[in-house]
Amino acid sequence: MTISYTTPTINNRLQEVLNSIGPVGAMRLLTSTNQTVGLISLANPAGTINGGVLTFTTPVSAPLTFISGQIVAADIEDGSTNVVAYGLTVGNSTLYDIVMTATTVSSGQIVTMTFGTITGK
Question: What pTM does this model have?
Answer without folding.
Answer: 0.90
